[in-house]
TrEMBL record:
Residues 521-530 have a biased composition (Basic and acidic residues). It comes from the Bacteria. Transmembrane segments: none annotated. Residues 638-712 form the ACT domain. The keyword Transmembrane helix does not apply. It comes from Streptomyces rubiginosohelvolus. It holds the Pfam family HD_4. Keywords: Kinase, Transferase. GO terms for molecular function: kinase activity. Belongs to the RelA/SpoT family. CDD domains: HDc (cd00077), NT_Rel-Spo_like (cd05399). This is Kinase.
Amino acid sequence: MSAEAADPGAPLRRRSRPRIDLRRLGRVALRGPVSRDRLPDAISHVAEAHRAHHPDADLTILRRAYVLAESSHRGQMRKSGEPYITHPLAVTLILAELGAETTTLTASLLHDTVEDTEVTLDQVKEQFGDEVCYLVDGVTKLEKVDYGAAAEPETFRKMLVATGNDVRVMSIKLADRLHNMRTLGVMRPEKQARIAKVTRDVLIPLAERLGVQALKTELEDLAFAILHPEEYEETRALIAAATGPDDPLETIADNVTHTLRDAGISAEVLIRPRHFVSVHRVRRKRGELRGTDFGRLLVLVGEDADCYAVLGELHTCFTPVISEFKDFIAAPKFNLYQSLHTAVVGPEGAVAEVLIRTHRMHKVAEAGVVALGNPYAQDPAAPPQTEPSDERADPTRPGWLSRLLDWQESATDPDTFWTTLRDDLAQDREITVFRTDGGTLGLPAGASCVDAAYAQYGDLAHTAIGARVNGRLATLSTVLSDGDTVQPLLAQDTASGPSPDWLDHARTPAARIAITGWFSDHPDEAKPDPETADATGPGTRGEPAAATEREAPARSRSGPRPTGVVVDDPNAQVRLAGCCTPVPPDELTGFVVRGGAVTVHRRECPAVAAMQEIGRAPVAASWADGEGRESDAGCRVTLVAESFGRPRLLADLTEAIATADAAIVSATVEPPSEQRVRHTYTLRLPDAAGLPGLMRAMRDVAGVYDVSRAQHPAPTG
Ligand code: MN
């Protein structure tokens, strides 16, 4: 029997998710299949949910699976007293709602039959084919794993290898665990706690890695309630108190809706309540909760490019909190998740976090690998596969899973494997760093250049001597940040080996196993004298390359001040043209425009030629020295930064701009094409002499390959 039983009356319920009444399913299931041609009522909810995602799905096989499962489990009860069939039905419904394909649902209906009933694997194979049989077998084995005794590490390892070929097995396992967690109330408290701990330590990280957000958040709340009942109650009370008619997020959502409508962008603006654990985390991080912390805005659009259009509007019409900006579209996380994240300041200073994604991205964010459908089927509707080096390309084997399978080959004893696996799953966040050859590496947060070296070069990394991080020399101990570009440097001397203190900086199992392995193969390499060992360096090969500080942006305060523009008519009102935003010492040409004002362009601005072509007479204009009209406002300039897309790019660029004392008047970000992004900023500088320094500082931002003056300003909101 499966270890847990159901209790439909369990007190733990999420707020927003409508749920099928399992009691009713139970009663219907008891009546059993009533007709040969019609779907039994009990399975019809599953069928409906399945058809919603897959309108053409063939439901015959589901009906057959239900009939077999129902008849073979008949007479079995869960601890709650309900017919056992309610469990596989509920598990299958969870998967159907996430959009799983028919084969997964079929296997899910049968997932406990081989373990708990007379049904054999051969029978499953005969009636439902190899694929369903393979999935049922995988789930059966996985089910034994969690409750196994002494052989746990070795069993788990075997199971992981067995299921490593197919993430659908894990999807079923996660849904199975979710239903068991939902119905844990009938268990003794010690048993609840034990199951909740395994859920927290293994299943939730697994859900995170597989990108199944909907399962992950609910599992988190269920485990939280069992393992931290007091904090759970506090959080529940806070959420209840904050739920009222004047949600400050509503106001901001309305503003966002109007802003996007005015801009002609069709988008759906929703408020997404945070789950309990998320509210609890925000509270721990900030100490106190703001009214806007109980949810986030979710903006759903049709096309990828619309995401950037929305971002541009929000950053123009609201004050953005730039440090909150993250681009998970240009550089997706390794669990398939794609979105833009930002935060905007609403009325009265309330800060709202905003997620921007397409409907498709949303589906993948919620359902992760489950939404990808049958990984073996050729789906003509699927997006084209990216290059093979991209870990996201193979949904059956995400990058971390491949790594796992690699370690289990190199880690010879199960304990090492088990420990490293648990450590790896405990890293709840991954960062993406860029290789200089254009590829990317997914590493756990806190990973260092040691990890990057082993991730990129395997055992060749034994000869590492240092690294370049964002173009600058860095020690191997340097901790990497999301979006860094890293280039490990290897010595020519291939006989040399790692330093023991690298273990202090290695966060990834791959690096730890490789380093430990090298020392066990080289027992003569005594640990270096701790007095002389360089805690950060590459051990026996002398001093590491010194890391150089980021060059401070060059800023000149001694240059000429922008001092207004002198034109022939001293009474004329002078305006600087928006199209080319001239600054000293640009050569100028003016034209009289409507109302008698003179608009001044840079001499090479195409507008000048165009005006002359249609017969407009130019007005001489030049920069004047001394105090002038423009000195108060400073000078305006529009710059275009061409970059390779990466996380934190916008944040780093705007930081460079702020450091150079320039203010952003408006900004647009064009959607990336082939990983390239174009940012256009209209900026106000206190002093035109600061422009070269500003442009240098922007060019120094990692990923930026060109910064130039624009002919046209960024549109303002
Ligand atoms: Mn089960």
